[in-house]
Amino acid sequence: MRFKLAYIFVFVTVFFTVAQTSKRNFRQRELGVFLGGSYYIGDLNTFKHFIYSKPAVGAFFRYTTNYRYAFRFGFNYGNIAASDSKSSNPDQLQRNANFQSAIYEFNAISEFNFVEYRIGHDKHYFTMYIFAGIAGFHFDPKGNIGQGWQSLQPLRTEGQAKPYLLEQISIPFGIGFKYNLGKFMGIGFEWGPRKTFTDYLDDVSGLYPDPKTTSSSGLLYAYRNKAGLLNDQIATMRGNPRTKDWYFFYGLSINFKLGDPHRPCYGVGMNTSRF
């Protein structure tokens, strides 16, 4: 269901962008910073938004070619985390998994403004907008197994033949609001889900492994012992591999309009009569 909604949102964004190509053009460049939070939805947190939120920061460059749409390139950093011990679900309490992971994201995004907008304009000074794009991100889930936080991917906790990749692609999309604070400054607030193509943001996806056929390293044994793995759980579902994990960024942006390098200068010319 989430996967279908993501593609519907991207389709609507593209449709409105194409429909507005006849709007008069102008050029505006901006640099901005992002301050907010990040969280995740997956096997350890199946539906509760904003829970386990952690601080997030970012920076971006926005290039506007039209009153209605713009292109943005940026970097975001945040953290995601969850713990089965805080759930009321008996299966999660028995699994007793936990994780935390930093997220490093580079993105390229297209924005569509619902009304005409630009910084410094006394009439077109605010707008709601939607956005969609593509991003590459790095993650590294760590679990607290009684010996501090340890990277879980090398342990192959579900008996994987090879470890999953820590560099992945995601589809960012969402909704936001922009408002002018002056001639050269604007603010915004946005909420942006990230549709991923991995189910291992939390290191939980498939079946409980058979300890006899997988690695018996000390760290892996400690992790499985913490989860209380029983013989009758071997080869039963540990997670839900049919759904992929999501991560989210939300918060406030502060952006500054840059000067136009192609704008003509009408200054006073040099007086050469005395030379």
Provide an overview of this structure.
With 275 residues, this protein is mainly beta. It has a domain at 2-88 and 100-142 and 164-208 and 242-257: Beta Barrel (Porin), CATH 2.40.160.20. 12% of the residues lie in helices and 43% in strands. The protein has 3 helices and 10 strands, in the order H-E-E-E-H-E-E-E-E-E-E-H-E. It has helices at residues 2-19, 90-95, 218-226, and strands at residues 25-41, 54-66, 69-83, 98-113, 126-139, 142-144, 149-151, 167-180, 185-196, 246-257. The strands form 2 sheets. It has an 8-stranded antiparallel beta barrel. The chain has a two-stranded antiparallel ribbon with strand order 6-7. Strand 6 (142-144) and strand 7 (149-151) form a beta hairpin. The longest helix has 18 residues, at 2-19. The protein is elongated, with a radius of gyration of 24 Å. Mean pLDDT is 84; it is low at 17-22 and 264-275.
Summarize model confidence as the mean pLDDT: 84
Helicity level, as a percent range?
10-25%
**SSE-based structural type:** mainly beta
CATH topology-level name of the domain at 2-88 and 100-142 and 164-208 and 242-257: Porin
Tell me what the CATH architecture of the domain at 2-88 and 100-142 and 164-208 and 242-257 is. Answer: Beta Barrel
Q: Report the major sheet.
A: 8 strands, antiparallel, barrel
* Level-1 CATH class name of the domain at 2-88 and 100-142 and 164-208 and 242-257: Mainly Beta
Which spans of ≥5 residues are poorly predicted at pLDDT below 50?
17-22, 264-275
| Estimated share of beta-strand residues | 35-45%
| Shape category | elongated
What is the total tally of β strands?
10
Side by side, the strands of the main sheet go 1-2-3-4-5-8-9-10
Figure out the total of helices. 3
- Topology as a string of helices (H) and strands (E): HEEEHEEEEEEHE
Please tell me how large the radius of gyration is. 24 Å
Cα end-to-end separation: 77 Å
